[in-house]
Amino acid sequence: MNVYDFIVRDSQGNDVKLDVYHGKMLLIINSATHCGYTKQYPGLETLYQKYHDQGLEILDFPCNQFAGQAPEDIDDYVSVCRLNHGTTFPIFDKIKVNGPQADPLYKYLKSTPVGENKRIRWNFTKFLIDRHGEVIGRYDSKISPEELDAIIAELI
Fold first, then answer.
1. Helix (H/G/I), strand (E/B), else coil: 9
2. Distance between alpha carbon 77 and the CA centroid of its chain, in Å?
3. How is 48-113 classified by DSSP, letter by letter?
4. For residues 144 and 12, is the Cβ–Cβ distance under 8 A?
5. What is the DSSP letter of 17?
6. What is the rounded CA–CA span in Å between residue 28 and residue 60?
7. What is the pLDDT of residue 85?
8. Residues 106, 91 contacting (CB under 8 angstroms)
9. Could you tell me which residues are beta bridge partners of residue 56?
10. Which of 26, 28, 32, 35 is catalytic?
């Protein structure tokens, strides 16, 4: 099993088979628009612009589980990200990342050796996925996109 085995919902509610990203490097994040780490959006967009043509995709999964910091409906959420933070990478439907109702993708990400079977501590936790769909890195919210640049450059 790997990341490509999962189906998620996009921001319009359509099913997306993650195997459409086969052969790409993925950075999967759980996000919120009213969080101290929301300031990472410009850095994430910089990574996306810098490495997208080389095969990087950033997959953004809004999550309202942490202090209600993603209160908007999904349409408003996408608008805030596009207009206020200039993001162009894919934003998916809101999900839960912890607990019994956690999205199956996140249950899987956390179950891998890299995922350490640990709960997601906060918004903007990042998982790096190689071109074969394997989880190769988990980075706490405190790790900035700028700190990931060298890691992505080396692996891409």
1. strand
2. 15
3. HHHHGGGTEEEEEEE--TTTT---S-HHHHHHHHHHHH---S-BB-----SSTT--HHHHHHHHST
4. no
5. E
6. 6
7. 95
8. no
9. 25
10. 35
35 included as an active-site residue: yes
Q: What is the DSSP letter of 131?
A: T
Domains of the chain are 3-155 (3.40.30.10)
Structure tokens at 119: 């709960």
Instruction: State the Cα–Cα distance between residues 123 and 128, nearest whole angstrom.
Output: 15
Q: Are strands 126-129 and 25-31 parallel, antiparallel or unpaired?
A: antiparallel
With tokens 């990203």, the residue in question is: 21
Which pLDDT tens digits describe the chain residue by residue (156 residues)? 999 999 999 999 999 999 999 999 999 999 999 999 999 999 999 999 999 999 999 999 999 999 999 999 999 999 999 999 999 999 999 999 999 999 999 999 999 999 888 999 999 999 999 999 999 999 999 999 999 999 999 999
Residues in CB range of 150: below 8 A, 6 or more apart: none
SS3 (DSSP) at 138: strand
